[in-house]
Specification:
2 domains, 3-stranded antiparallel β-sheet, 253 residues, two-stranded antiparallel sheet, mainly alpha, 69% helix, elongated, Multidrug-efflux Transporter Regulator, Chain: A, Domain 2
């Protein structure tokens, strides 16, 4: 959170609030506020005459917690980050955004069940269930489905157009997905081992935070380019090998 934002909050937030007033100010329940205090997420209030009083810093901290939760952080992770590295907590929000930001060149596509049936030549519940399990489709309710990667959906459609049944095509996509997860873990491990761990061991210097976020932003396109390039080479080798064996068997006959 920037100094300007904190200054604005200081001007607009009451200097002293009871826990009930703090709950009203942040839209958070008193129970959750006390729970955050018990976890060490929120500094203790100033106590006078047995009443705890909270200020702008408490509001800023609770709003940061809300923001981090909205970005997908669990309370246990927030507790570690804020408890041990309070100054870095807002930076982890930026890091999380860099990790989860969608690729710019492909927007999800929403289709009805009827549209899916038209594109794929039928409405097989088992095939639909498989596509949902693989994450090719996401159920939005009311028989509407989101395709996070329209490119992958088009690939399945084109394979179907070649005369290959959809069920074995999806089975192949499942194998590709497992291989992709393994490759993705390799790239993430490379980042963690070679960039994050030295940065963390150095105490997360302020001047290096932008480098870490930039590295995460660059990691995904670099990984995708490398994956496409290596897959092209592997596909060429496998095609040559497979059809070479086919031709050799035909020659022997």
């Amino acid at each position: 959170m920037s100094n300007d934002t904190q200054a604005t909050q200081a001007r607009t937030t009451p200097a002293e609030m009871t826990v009930e007033q703090l709950a009203y100010e942040t839209g958070m329940s008193v129970r959750n506020i006390r729970n955050h205090q018990s976890r060490g997420l929120l500094p203790p209030p100033a106590v006078r005459a047995r009443t705890g009083y909270y200020g702008a810093d408490h509001v800023a901290r609770l709003r940061l917690i809300q923001e981090m939760q909205a970005e997908g952080f669990k309370l246990s992770a927030i507790s570690r980050l804020i408890g041990e590295h309070g100054a870095d907590a807002d930076r982890f929000v930026g890091l999380r955004q860099a990790v989860t930001a969608p690729f710019d060149d492909e927007a999800p596509e929403v289709l009805t069940r009827e549209e899916l049936g038209e594109r794929f030549g039928g409405d097989d519940p088992k095939v639909l269930a498989k596509a949902l399990k693989l994450g090719i489709l996401v159920d939005l309710g009311d028989e509407r489905y989101e395709a996070p990667s329209p490119t992958l959906l088009r690939a399945a459609e084109e394979v179907l157009g070649m005369g290959i049944p959809l069920a074995p095509a999806l089975a192949t996509i499942e194998k590709l997905s497992r291989a992709s997860h393994s490759s993705a873990r390799a790239f993430v491990s490379l980042f963690l081992d070679e960039l994050w761990k030295p940065f963390d061991a150095a105490g997360r210097p302020d001047e290096d935070w932008p480098k870490m976020i930039a590295a995460i932003e660059r990691l995904r396109p670099i990984a995708v380019d490398a994956m496409v390039a290596t897959f092209r080479l592997s596909l060429t080798e496998e095609v040559d090998k497979a059809f070479g064996e086919v031709l050799e068997r035909a020659r022997k006959k």
